[in-house]
Amino acid sequence: MSNPTAAILIIGNEILSGRTQDTNVNFLAKRLAARGIELAEVRVVPDVPHRIITAVVQLRASYSMLFTTGGIGPTHDDITSECIAAAFGVPWEIHEETFAAMEAYMGKEHFNAARQRMATMPRGAKPINNKISMAPGFTIGNVHVMAGVPKIMQAMYDALEPTLPTGTPITMRAVYGMGILEGAIAAGLSAIQDRFADVDLGSYPFRRDGAGGVAIVAKGTDPKLLESAIAEVSQLLAAQGFDPIQGEPE
Amino acid sequence: MSNPTAAILIIGNEILSGRTQDTNVNFLAKRLAARGIELAEVRVVPDVPHRIITAVVQLRASYSMLFTTGGIGPTHDDITSECIAAAFGVPWEIHEETFAAMEAYMGKEHFNAARQRMATMPRGAKPINNKISMAPGFTIGNVHVMAGVPKIMQAMYDALEPTLPTGTPITMRAVYGMGILEGAIAAGLSAIQDRFADVDLGSYPFRRDGAGGVAIVAKGTDPKLLESAIAEVSQLLAAQGFDPIQGEPE
Asked: Which residues of chain A have a CB within 8 Å of the CB of B41?
């Protein structure tokens, strides 16, 4: 696949402490796949400047684009914006347009120093507008800086999406075999994978309501190839005496 | 804090594709915190050998220990074990004890080549026994290789936990202010953080049932300091006319 690639950097002590269950990765993974952008890496780092800066420098150099989530509010632990400036080696300065808009919205008397920090961005940043929050997301170079709160992050991604490059949408087809054990079909699956170089064939054991089985998922950019690969997997399951159930991968 | 540190490496195309919502990080984060081990980084990489090997080499050098999840089954996409061998520069070879146990359990006629692969481990690996699965988790050096299926991973962690180093348990205390905006308390919070160098004070806006507020979470290894910091935050909220609600962080 020659699709654009992406990484996600989650800046979040609350994920590392176990306080919060991340859901932003799953949301972005699905939306990026539908746009033909390959999510190639995710990292979670704490609210520590050198950790954030190093990760931004590495990830934005390694992939077509980087999305960050978290750390853009007005409190002392919101340090993403100045870390992005450091990663780009540009000044961190008042973004005049955002400053004026926030001041007008809040009123001069409530627009205190902490809130003015939210209007401070790396030089060259372009704000990501969203309809539900004043949270100051922005794009600079190939880095998209978004909120950590899922609803605000999602609104920002909605605003951002039309500006992103597109690739061939990445889709999936799946077949389920109840009661099957991976070890019984591994050789056959491997042979099918060898015949379909452009399909990414994954095998995932699952348990549900006390019963177990295996989901075989074909992922790729050519729906016809996915159908063909899944048809072969279904034959493999049937030949082993199992009833293959085709369906959407979930 | 001079607690031991840990990283998690998730080897999982299914997380990056959006097919699966990861829950292993949250489980491990809580259990590690309770044992006094600081979870310092998480990475998700695809089932690609050089990506796995590079991440293992980097993460195990950077932290006291590394946990990997995923990729230890018998199918062609299960490549974690050989990648760990490559990362350690040791041969990948039959683990005699595991081989014998699996052969006895499955019977010689079902113990095919794919299943024999599951009994193949990096030289020096020590199997992680668990009660619910034959999945071949193992420990080598400071790397703990676990299954991706949450129930199996959890059983492996249960078996592994007594062998891990311990630190001072990391706990949290929280106070919630409904209707509060972060920008109104940011300066006060920052001053409290400055007075409590050994407490990690985080501020997390939330929305629930249409109402919004902020959760202030104090994290650290000294419960008395956490109480003191949260008491000061409660006073700050009260001084702003808000009703502070103390509770367990969730």
From this structure: 16, 43-45, 51
